[in-house]
What we know:
By secondary structure, this protein is α+β, with helices and mostly antiparallel strands. The protein is 32% helix and 13% strand. It contains 6 helices and 2 strands. It has a two-stranded antiparallel sheet with strand order 1-2.
Amino acid sequence: MKRALVVVLLVAGVGVVVARIQTPPLPNGVRLTAGDAPSNAVERGRLVYRRYGCATCHGVDGKGGFPNQNAETDGKVPAVIYVAEGYTDRELRQRLLDGTPTVGKADAKGPRPPYRMPGWRAQMTDREVDDLVQYLKSLYPKSAGEKWR
Length: 149
């Protein structure tokens, strides 16, 4: 089911629709009882990735691909399998908490990409964020590390 975010601007008390932005479908949450949670941070992080719907845009395997018109990342939501290359744990944690307020345009004269990553500060616990960081780092392909040697 597709959802849309409608941005309304109030002008002299009258609502005027400014933009209608398509949003990805809501994720199917995965909830665990305390006894079901894995003891391993990477496995807990995998469950956090599923629970918060990260796969909706970044893909079940973290390879991205959800269309994001005119995004500088080839018009798609970026993959997360290479975050270990570009972020320290602290930087990645901050990105998860703050989100991505703007997404760069492939064509400066084109439309603003409709999707951006929300910040999860108000939704995720500290442990969930830490576990998600470990999971995302674990997605880094082993063969990719070899090319940098």
